[in-house]
Specification:
Layout (H helix, E strand, L loop, with lengths): L5 H4 L7 H8 L38 H25 L5 H33 L4 H21 L9 H26 L2 H14 L22
Length: about 220
Amino acid sequence: MRALKRKDLGLAHKGSWLERLQVLVGTDRRPGPGQPELGSNWPRSRPGGTLPSRTEAPPANSIVEMVLGEHAMIRVLLNELASRLKTAPCDTPSTKAMAGLVATALLSHASLEEEVLLPHLDAALGNEGLPMLMRREHHALELSWEQASKSPWASPADRLPQFLALAREHLAREERVLLPAARILLTALEQQVLGRRWACARGLEFPSPRPRDTAVMSPQPRA
């Protein structure tokens, strides 16, 4: 893990982690009318796309690709559950089963992010700011699911739609802020090694890491 220095951020002045991250992911400009600030509950669609423009292609089998791949799968489940909620009561066995599947996939995904990716961003940004924000959102998802699963399934006040909305917001925020930051803060080799760790945790077989890869298997503290 290369140490994050002020020159890497293009900053000539001291600033908060939020200001540094805004420069990193290209969102340091003021938002236009109707566009919220970085870190707020942005809408899913945002002018300019979700990832900053970069000249180089992301490395194959990188941690970013692994996370995005699971996001796509989770969104399929979220969409299916949302469709069922429009036509069937919340207390039907199929709806309950689908909701449990969505929660399992989403919370497993969040747990693996905290195990594989976030410690390396801690090393670059410190254990506050963006990494802490992601952990807090993961915890909020856990609480939201706990409340939804324990509420009366047939009640008009069912909290399952709230859980779905929170999940969509979190996935979108990761794609707008977390993953672009990972692409910039981590070298191509680090992204590939972490991608291999993610795949192995999911039971996929990857070649054993080369000897020079082992140095980035554990996050290093900032210099």
